[in-house]
Amino acid sequence: MTGTIPRHALLLAALGLLASGCGLSAELDREADPARTAAQRRPSAPAPSVAAPGGVRTAPSPSAPAGPACPAPGIRVSSGMVTAAMGLRAMPVTLTNCGSADQKVDGYPDVQVRDVDRRRMDVTVLKGTGPITTLDDPGPRPVTLKPGESARSMFVWRYSAVDPATGAGSGVYVEIAPAAGVARQTVVPEGGLDIGDTGLLGTTSWQKVVE
């Protein structure tokens, strides 16, 4: 129909926005090319469910970390939209200095992934993104965040089998800290991380968000 934007064009535009400044755009574009990857297309699993009264299972709602508006020590963790391009997934994770003093971060996020029943999943968290994708990781460097400023890491993974009935294989609750030894905060990404029970999760180092 005249004036209608093809669905693949919308997907590519969305992926470009997500990956802007991270070097991920080209890789996601390749994944989203139907001509190259139609034979490898695998359906995305529906959002996992959690138990509700009466035995009915309902999908958890994405939420900010539980607790005070500005958790100690003054940094709030949040996750962005999960973007899918065939088998490749990408999700931005943001640290925001919500306190009144400068905050310093350096290196990679400390991450633990839990399933729908909050059991720890057998997920290997990588410092970097290989062998998942060719996304360039700038590497660890000290970042100072003034109040209100943010730093970001990109999480990437490959789709792995998820049971659509039980949600088995989906990382529903993702516990994230700026670094090891710091208290993790829990985020609930929309749709979960369809990473499987023995998946790999790649992360990039924290980089300051430039407005």
Short description, anyone?
By secondary structure, this protein is mainly beta. It is 12% helix and 30% strand.
Task: Tell me what you see in this structure.
The chain has 211 residues and is mainly beta. It has a domain at 64-208: Immunoglobulins (Immunoglobulin-like, Sandwich). It is built from three helices and 16 strands. The protein has helices spanning 7-19, 25-32, 34-37, and strands at residues 50-51, 57-58, 75-79, 83-85, 88-97, 103-105, 110-114, 124-127, 143-145, 150-158, 170-171, 173-177, 185-187, 193-194, 200-203, 207-208. The strands form five sheets. Strands 3, 4, 5, 8, 10, 15 and 16 form a seven-stranded mixed beta sheet that branches. Helix 1 runs antiparallel to helix 2 (25-32). The protein is globular, with a radius of gyration of 18 Å. The termini are far apart.
Intertermini distance: 38 Å
**What pattern of helices and strands is seen along the backbone?**
HHHEEEEEEEEEEEEEEEE
Taking all residues together, what is the mean pLDDT?
Answer: 78
Q: Sheet with the most strands? A: 7 strands, mixed
Structural class given helices, strands, pairing?
A: mainly beta
As a percent range, the share of helical residues equals 10-25%
Number of strands: 16
Percent strand equals 25-35%
SSE blueprint and pairings:
Layout: H1 7-19, H2 25-32, H3 34-37, E1 50-51, E2 57-58, E3 75-79, E4 83-85, E5 88-97, E6 103-105, E7 110-114, E8 124-127, E9 143-145, E10 150-158, E11 170-171, E12 173-177, E13 185-187, E14 193-194, E15 200-203, E16 207-208
Parallel strand pairs: 8-15
Antiparallel strand pairs: 1-2, 3-5, 4-5, 5-10, 6-9, 7-12, 10-15, 10-16, 11-14, 12-13
Helix pairs in contact: 1-2
